[in-house]
Design goal:
mainly beta, UDP N-Acetylglucosamine Acyltransferase, domain 1, 7-stranded parallel sheet, 7% helix
Length: 185
């Protein structure tokens, strides 16, 4: 704990004071708290972030409430806004992204589609879950391990996702289909 009394102010200075820490936190030495560009990270008191976790604001805002536990190897990256409420527990290897690449664009590596994520209070997110852009998770919800959360989750409910999948051809903005052979006569 003592090391974080030194590390948190140093982290804030290194990130151009785009990171803020309220009260005491328990942040592993191998966890990364980063802010780039106009990005802002705010972490409330009594938050624990385990080793290998990445909490990054790449132009967006990442707000983490008090008494939140973020397990090892989680990846939380904001280009718009991610808000995690008080007393949430996030299992290992969870990914939370408020953006994805615009795969229809010719510049898919640098263009993003962004929508805010809001995670309520006292939410439990199981290991290996993925929370995608535009999702709101209500208070006291439980997200099952391995779930891919693509829609809002009401308060006091459990979200499970099934392993069904579908493969579709990609229609590019300039027309035509990628990876689909055209009949030749």
């Amino acid at each position: 704990m003592g090391i974080n009394l030194i590390r948190c102010p140093i982290n804030a200075a290194v990130n151009g004071f785009h990171t803020s820490f309220a009260g005491l936190q328990k942040i592993a030495l191998t966890a990364k708290i980063e802010a780039y560009g106009a990005g802002r990270v705010a972490i409330a008191q009594r938050t624990t972030i385990d080793g290998g976790a990445v909490c990054r604001a790449s132009g967006g805002k990442l707000t983490i409430g008090d008494h939140v536990y973020i397990n090892r190897n989680c990846s939380i990256v904001s280009r718009a806004s991610i808000k995690i409420g008080r007393r949430c527990t996030i299992g290992p290897n969870v990914c939370i992204y408020d953006h994805d690449h615009d795969f229809r664009s010719a510049n898919r590596g640098t263009q993003y589609v962004c929508k805010p994520i809001v995670i309520g209070e006292n939410v439990w997110i199981g290991a290996n879950a993925i929370i995608i852009k535009g999702v709101t998770i209500g208070d006291n919800a439980v997200i099952a391990a391995g779930a891919v959360v693509k829609c809002d989750v009401p308060a006091d409910s459990m979200y499970l996702s099934k392993s069904e999948y579908e493969i579709r051809a990609i229609e590019h903005k300039h027309g035509g289909m990628a990876g689909v052979a055209q009949d030749q006569e």
